[in-house]
Amino acid sequence: MHHAPMRSVRVLHAIHSLRGGGAEAQLRLLCTAWSDPAVEMAVLCVQPDDVVLPERVRVIGLNNRQPLSVAYLTEIVRTIRAVDPDVVHVWLPASVSIPVMVSARLLGKAVVFSYRSKMTFHRPLCVPEFAAALACAQRIVSNSPMEGSNAAFRWLFRLKNGAVIPNGTASVPGGRNEADSRSDRKWRFIFVGRLTRLKNCDVLLHAFDMLAGRSDWHLDLFGVGEEEGRLRKFVERRNLQDRVVFRGYERNIQARMRESDCLVLPSLSEGMPNVLIEAMAVGLPVVASDVPGIRWVVGNESAVVWVDPSRPGHIAEHLAAIMDGRVDTKLMVGAGYRIAGRYSPGVMVDRYRDFYRSLASGTVD
């Protein structure tokens, strides 16, 4: 008796947009690095913009973008039926995750819900999103450990047999020329991230203000966010405009890292800090907050200079130590290369492939 050949596993990802960092960047990287023909990938994207993915990954945009309207919900159901996936992997935001999880579950599909960094009830939609995940998700996947997340989300992670799959980075290792990077004899520090309270840029700027008597440093801030106006006013008030520059969003951040001397990561909390791994991959020394998310990545390696994010004086002291040559940055860079190698796209793809196959094994003919 001959059996029909087993068809490939189909995975449908659901996200609002493919543009941006964080989850969007990870989904782009996952789709770009994916090469297993036994697992087909498609993306339901409310606003696909002009982001280009490999031809083997089908991107399905929605014509109706009004969240929770009848037409919006109908189009989601129609898309799931048309793709006929074995697994529906829901990313963000809640306006996408809630209707997609409920629709996929009603259509008998295996549902995966993504945790991104610390999970808390910080927005009103977090409550119905939690309820939808509780009722509809078979599994949960997180890019970082559960420390710092709300107790209810930690309980849900255990209930759904959650898996931790760290982010990957597409950085090309090496390429930074330390000798050329400081031709003007100034240390060029770089911050990369959203300008929000949790990123702690106000304390960072206070630290650099304490170093205003030195002429051997410059700080570039790459990112945008709700704190930008307040941060700019501080820089102007302290007459630091010539030394602290707001660069906005940068598409090719790896190139800017290669032109810099040190990344400063002063966050009050972190989940899976992509920018840390990207900096390590290009050989950039790092000054970072001693918080759980960053500790989880670095471990016991001598790859960063640790600082207390609540103390600008402590940060300033360690920035000065780096500029004065009292820190072995070559040792840091070597350790950073080792860490970055653990977060290659190939490692991430292998983990997701095994995860999807195990989840679909009970649903694939």
Give an overview of the whole structure.
The protein folds into two domains: 9-168 and 344-360, Glycogen Phosphorylase B (Rossmann fold); 178-341, Rossmann fold. It is built from 14 helices and 13 strands. It has helices spanning 23-33, 70-83, 94-106, 126-136, 151-159, 178-181, 201-209, 228-237, 253-258, 274-281, 292-298, 312-323, 329-341, 345-360, and strands at residues 9-17, 39-47, 58-61, 87-90, 110-115, 139-142, 163-164, 187-192, 217-222, 244-248, 262-265, 286-289, 305-307. A seven-stranded parallel sheet has the order 3-2-1-4-5-6-7, with helices on both faces. It is elongated, with a radius of gyration of 22 Å. The protein starts with 8 loop residues before the first strand and ends in a 5-residue tail after the last helix. The mean pLDDT is 90.
Primary descriptors:
alpha/beta; Rossmann fold; 2 domains; 13 strands
In DSSP terms (H or I, runs of 4 or more residues), the helix count works out at 14
How would you state the average pLDDT, rounded? 90
CATH superfamily of the largest domain, called what? Glycogen Phosphorylase B
The amount of helix comes to 25-40%
General shape: elongated
Question: What pattern of helices and strands is seen along the backbone?
Answer: EHEEHEHEHEHEHEHEHEHEHEHEHHH
CATH fold-level topology of the largest domain:
Rossmann fold
In terms of DSSP E residues, the strand content is: 15-25%
Q: Report how far apart the termini are.
A: 16 Å
CATH architecture type of the largest domain: 3-Layer(aba) Sandwich
Number of strands: 13
What ranges have pLDDT less than 50 throughout 5 or more consecutive residues?
A: none
Tell me the major beta sheet: 7 strands, parallel
CATH class call of the largest domain? Alpha Beta
Radius of gyration: 22 Å
Instruction: Record the strand order, biggest sheet.
Output: 3-2-1-4-5-6-7
